[in-house]
Amino acid sequence: MLLPVRRAGQRRWRLIEVKAASEVKDVHREDVAIQCYTARQAGVDLAGAALAHVDTVWVYPGGGDYDGLLQEVDLTREVRQQIAAVEDWIDQARRVVAQPRMPEIETGPQCHTPYECGFLSFCQSQETQPEHPTTLIPGKRRAALVALMEQRHDLALQEVPDALLSDRQRRVKHCTLRNEVAHDLRGARADLQHALPHYYLDFETVQFAVPI
Ligand code: SF4
Description:
The chain is α+β, with helices and mostly antiparallel strands.
């Protein structure tokens, strides 16, 4: 967000990037530097830059008072030092785009660090994929499995060790490979004991940064 400030009678702006994080990470610094560079190139007169993250020791006092929930860390000086790096990243990207052919680079860990690359599905579509890819594994994946998948983009479902999977993921793996339908008769019966109508709450839609 951009907040107006007065400096020597002039209206200028403070750029504050708000993250759902508990601390400042290097990737946040780069993010703020890129945003400041973009804002300056667009003619915005920036007086400073900061990152706001959640203060994990803050306690909600009630009454709609969220003062103190976010902690602001001033990054003005760091951003100033990083602007040259931003210009260098842009030059590098322009050189790649200007090439007549795509660089021949296989997908790998770089496609997920620090975030998933927007070209991932395109790049994967250019590579031979296993018949049963690991993207079929549902739910939260253990860190060791994530690391393995990032190392081996051609990893097939049958190559994933059972030890890295939850019960549900193991069931999906084995049913997929055997082309079987899993029918949890007991679970279905237990669910149907509740009187209709049924209501479902998707917890992903209610992830608050702090308890309310
Ligand atoms: S997905 Fe992104 S990071 Fe990975 S190879 Fe393609 S362009 Fe490079």
